[in-house]
Amino acid sequence: MSDDKIKEADIEAAERLLAVAYTAQERAQMAGNLEGQIDSAVARRKVELANSVPMSLRFDPRLPGFEMPQAEGVVGSRPDAPLPDSEEDIAFARLPQLGAWIASGALTSRRLTEIYLDRIARFNPQLMCYAMVTTDMALAEADAMDALTAQGKSLGPLHGIPYGVKDLFDTDGIVTGWGAEPYRNRVPAGDARIVTMLRDAGAVLLGKTTVGALAYNDIWYGGVTRNPWNTDEGSSGSSAGSASATAAGLCAFAIGTETLGSITSPCQRCGPTGLRPTFGRVSRAGGMALCWSLDKVGPICRGVEDTALVLAAINGGDPADLCSIHAPFSFDAGRGIEGLKLGYLPEAFGEGATDVDRVALEAAKKLGIEVVEVSLPDLPYGALMNVVYAEAAAAFEHLTLTGADDTLTWQDDGAWPNTFRKARFLSAVDHVQLDRLRYLVMQALDGLFQEVDALIGPFMTGPMLVASNFTGHPCLHLRAGFENLGTRSAASLGEGKLTTGDADTSGKTHRVPQGISLWGRLFDEGTIINLGLALEASLGVADERPRLPE
Known about the structure:
GO molecular function, one term: glutaminyl-tRNA synthase (glutamine-hydrolyzing) activity
Domain Amidase: 112-467
Distance between the termini: 60 Å
Strand content: 15-25%
CATH class: Alpha Beta
CATH architecture: Alpha-Beta Complex
Organism: Marimonas arenosa
Structural class: alpha/beta
Number of strands: 17
Protein name: Amidase
């Protein structure tokens, strides 16, 4: 503690930062009584806490009385199209078809892997969607899968299928740099749980897809990851490379993570299909922590059914993740959607909604299911954002306290360095109260999903992006159409608000994809995937490909 004593004027000045007001007498009483509190904080800061050290408190999305679904098992479709001559057509095929070709011997895992590696070599310099390509490992894994195929053995629907994993997940002996300059030479000594599970499922690792530095945006130490539909703009983030690579046909699928939009936002911009599973369903062990009570792991794919096949492979409880929840997963591609009740918030399709949003809602109304208006209680949902700031600032406290945050490329007002610094002024009392507000939000969404089986809306529907991430409900985001838009700016947390980037209204426009979101009940991803399949077929826009720059 400094020899300088806390003065009443210091307290009065600090009051403005916390939006509180004390009397002169109250300040005088505190002035001689704060040193112990400050000394305790300083003493704690001397204890170095690695990113892998979790919070002792764990978030559980299940309210009292919750009953876990018991159905388990995945039944996929059985496509039988002949193998095309075009390597591009092969590259853009969906997982059920790729799996069928490999199982029949029409396509080897090595040839498919080489197709993707060739496309990475051609297009990654423009898209910057891979931070590291593991060529030799990928070919060796592909050969191993082909050897099993020759013996009549299959490890499942992902057998021999090449994928990319977001560069937040440890890979043994391979740089895992978290997109951030202080960690660009970080080499872990083991694999993340999800990498192990996908290897056991027969998937072939092509490399590490780029991540916006410390899981935010699309700016990383190698540059800016690009949207393949308009390479003048970033791909959004933070699963920037996973969305860009999947949309561009540089992998069969990819793994992303979401704390607050990091799967759904780049899917909205780049056009693939993303599934953010229920909080706790997929292990985060061996992955970078940003917000322990919010981080989730999910697949980014080219089609709705694909997300079910990947989720089945990565689903499972894990003692190494304190927030992990053992839950069965069930999906049947042939199951109909008859009898489902779909809700929507009418204000989400009013001012600010796009033609694509409204077309998606009308398409849903024509699926032969009941579609009804719903509402949510009037709560300050956006206030929960302070939890994100606090947990993220804690995860990377040492960057702030040592000044290493200055080495990060992105230094805007809404970027992490400024956000982390501001978070030091958040109130611990307010943080506890935010956790109690979170419980009210959990009750609000639980009430909503007692009325309907699923909710449909634009990516930024009212409070749903924030609310559902804090309650842990699953979200499927799929392509719904196209718009002509100017180049969009980066996402931002500036002024304490979440934005996804404004479009330039004066410059050249580009035909870019737009999506729609489906939210579902906790641990009931199968329902929104079946609903998404029906909507995907009705909209008929999922198969268009970007024209990639050579």
